[in-house]
Queue: 2 jobs
Job 1
Amino acid sequence: MSYLNWILRAVLFIALLGFAVKNDQTVELRYFFGYIWQSSLVIVLLLFFAAGAAVGVLAMFANVLQQRREIARLKREIRVKNKLAGVDDTHSIQPS
């Protein structure tokens, strides 16, 4: 299985390297106030891909924090209910 994984990585690397070599043309990005940025097409695509991934991670971050707070609240509830029921910690269901 490890060999298959490395072969797949090598094929993907070669495909992306071929894409980068074949698309080395200069592109112009025009902004407001006459500002123009010239760079290679591959660099521009890489930057916008990375920016999109970062925005996706940031959008997901709030949901992850909300889920962690909910898990902590539920763990506290379990501890309180076990304490009220008089169940010691060795026989109770422990939150992981």
Note: The beta strands are 26-30, 36-40.
Job 2
Amino acid sequence: MTDFTPISALLGGCLIGLSASAMLLFDGKVVGISGILAGVLRPVRGDTLWRACFIGGLVVGGLILRMLLPAAFDFGILRSPAALVVGGLLVGFGTRLGNGCTSGHGVCGIARLSVRSLVATTTFIATGAAVVYALKHVLTG
């Protein structure tokens, strides 16, 4: 690894854990991004505003980080736009198939000792590792 940054990774993980814990503790809601976004796309009366604000906060937070630390976004995307679209669609399909995403299952579900989330997260990681191995070593020689 050439970009090993343990301090920023630790701080980021702590912030994610604290925010997920605060949401569960103070509002009783699980921070699963796919579920939050689904609630915005299929609104339910009285349950949409907090979801829209949460998604808006993610976008605004990213924009603020881009302004304050532009070097954090200096990376090359080594795939074609078509591959990125296919990858995004596969992630969306997997999220629906797994009834949640890594943020919901991996951060919140495992913290609640959910067996379903443990199985889902293990499946996400194993599948991701297999795909990376296949793309890096099998398909490209």
Note: The chain has a mean pLDDT of 87.
